[in-house]
Amino acid sequence: MAAKIKRIAINTGGGDAPGLNAVIRAVVISAWNMGWEVVGIRDGYNGLLLPQDYPDGGLVKLDRSRVRGITHLGGTILGTTNKGNPAKYPTLGKDGRWYEKDRTGELVALFKKHKIDALVALGGDGSLGIANMLAEKGLRVIGVPKTIDNDLKGTVATFGFDTAVAFATECLDRLHSTAEAHRRIMVIEVMGRYAGWIALNTGISGTADAILIPEIPYDINKLAAAMKALEERNKYFGIVVVAEGARPKGGSVCVVSKELGRQEKLGGCGERVARELQELTGRECRTVVLGHLLRGGSPTTFDRLLSLRFGSAAVRALAEGKSGVMVALDPPKVRYVPLAQATKRLKTVPLDCDSVLTARSLGVSFGD
Predict the structure, then answer these.
(1) Residue 362's closest CA among 204, 170, 201?
(2) Rounded CA gap, 176 and 266, in Å?
């Protein structure tokens, strides 16, 4: 029998995504209706680990008034970070050098110190992997799948993905006209890390001529041939969507940097593809990096509803005595998946999925 809950915490970790505030609102209202108090942790776990850095001590009381009117807002009222992994926390040593320190045991003790009975953790694979570690150390945890990359196993969709694809598709619509006017090849780089869902869905919906995704290593010569073939159909411009984690056959991904306590930062793939395409085709190529534009803005109706469903389901899971699970979309229901299972490996694009087959039927090149 699970201990009675009186006070829960909620935090947001990793990159921000449209829908975070909607989840926060749903958790707060649902929890208060259960008679529970809710506190928000600032910037992932930093509010607990570095309370001296915050005027409010790193914890903020959340009630109906604090979450009123935030469903449609992008970002997160709690703040977030992708540099605060408590298992590899950046720590300055006595020798003046930075090293990674495991502070998970200390973190669990801090939850007890603040009389927090359970945590609702909003995050992607990295953040939910941390949540699973805390659950294994005895903290009561429910995970909520947040990532614009849509790369979490066990759920049909993550909130933030639909909004990111909708905006990226709108950008492609705009780029078609300028590409045609100047007879250019436009290379559009989108986020997604090691999963090609954003690039694939955007490319098909935005009528791209080529889509490069991490799951299908590309041959730049075949991509160039596909661009040249467009002229045979009297089309003198091209649209190429490139996932930031795409890589050439026999090559590697483009890494911008690797900082202590965080995942490696990807970027530059679009520029590389554009430069090589221009050399091979003799056509002017321009690069557009959508980057963090995909993370901002108001969530779509789909993402708002999914976020509210996830937040409410997380509170129900706690009320049912569950822990160490992630709420997951399994239409028409939301079910619970073990965090260990959900974070074991990424959900990448299956090469035989209908979207890939549809793209190939429409003549879209994957550079393979």
Answers:
(1) 204
(2) 26
DSSP 346: B
User: What digits encode the pLDDT tens for the residues 116-144?
Assistant: 999 999 999 999 999 999 999 999 999 99
Tokens, residue 358? 């549809």
Active-site choice (16, 125, 149, 303):
149
The two counts, helices (H) then strands (E), for the chain are: 11, 15
Report which of 311, 303, 295, 302 is spatially closest to residue 80, judged by C-alpha positions.
295
The number of distinct structural domains making up the chain is 2
368 is catalytic: no
- Whole-angstrom distance, CA of residue 36 vs CA of residue 30: 9
pLDDT in tens, 264-286: 788 899 999 999 999 999 999 99
Domain check: are 59 and 110 in the same one? Answer: yes
**Residue 244 structural domain:** 164-296+350-361
